[in-house]
Amino acid sequence: MSVRIGFLGLGIMGTAMARNCRKAGHDVMVWNRSPKAAQALAGEGARVAATPAEAAAFGQVVVVMLTGPEACEAVLFGPDGAAGSLGPGQTVVNMSTIPPAFAREAAQKVRATGADYVDAPVSGSKKPAEDGTLVILAGGREATIAAVEPVLLAMGKKVARCGEAGMGSTMKITVNVLLGAMAEGLAETVLLGESLGLDRKALLDVIMAGPMANDLFRLKDPMFRADDYPPQFPAKHMAKDLRFAAEAASQAGANAPTLAVLNTLYARLLDRGLGEADFAAVIKAL
């Protein structure tokens, strides 16, 4: 069944996700702050909105895929924002990575319009977004998640139910701590091996042939071999997610020593001008 979707935000991830919604047969109206990405999708059959409010008025489901809480606040609740067009029967699906507290606040504001809200960030980067194999971390009312699941499965392979709104974001920042630690661990191992006289490619061959090999390492292996880090998940976004995780850990009184180290390293990476590189470029911060 075709669903009318208003899609807000067409970055590395959003463009691929909106394209997959179109491929699944949904009627998609897109909006992006810079119009070039929207025009590219228009050539593939998407409608283009002039404002977030116009896209929201069109959509039975309004998907938001933006860089963080500031952008979400402006696009949802600012001038010409989506919230002004929302009402009963609509659902906002916020797939941006945002702090859990912001997700809970946004849910309250959206629900005050009569619409509902699902907090649904994703686990996965550029290639899974292109392939439609993201894991979607959904927080919200069970009936609402079930209602929007056909749209979510146009973009992902699995919808993980995490609890109420805000818990999807909690799940995302928690698993991204592990993601950052895995990339840093591989990077540190490569540099240690080289400092001890091992050939980088020989070391990576051993890692990839043994029990330590995993999907993430296989994805990043060519980057470490070439010492080149084209963005699949930019380091600036990893740094942001780790910052959100550290804030949440502090508020909860949780002990997270590795998270503190990761925050220092990714902040250093941004200071060195590598925020646009893939997060595997953390090797340059060591």
TrEMBL record:
Residues 4-162 form the 6-phosphogluconate dehydrogenase NADP-binding domain. Its EC number is 1.1.1.31. Pfam families: NAD_binding_11, NAD_binding_2. PROSITE patterns: 3_HYDROXYISOBUT_DH (PS00895). Residues 166-286 form the 3-hydroxyisobutyrate dehydrogenase-like NAD-binding domain. One of its GO terms (molecular function) is 3-hydroxyisobutyrate dehydrogenase activity. InterPro entries: 3-OH-isobutyrate_DH-rel_CS, 6-PGluconate_DH-like_C_sf, 6PGD_dom2, 6PGDH_NADP-bd, HIBADH-like_NADP-bd, HIBADH-related, HIBADH-related_NP60_sf, NAD(P)-bd_dom_sf. Keywords: NAD, Oxidoreductase. It is an enzyme of class 1 (oxidoreductase). The keyword Oxidoreductase applies. One of its GO terms (biological process) is organic acid catabolic process. The active site is at K172. This is 3-hydroxyisobutyrate dehydrogenase. It comes from Solidesulfovibrio carbinoliphilus subsp. oakridgensis. The lineage of its organism: Bacteria, Pseudomonadati, Thermodesulfobacteriota, Desulfovibrionia, Desulfovibrionales.
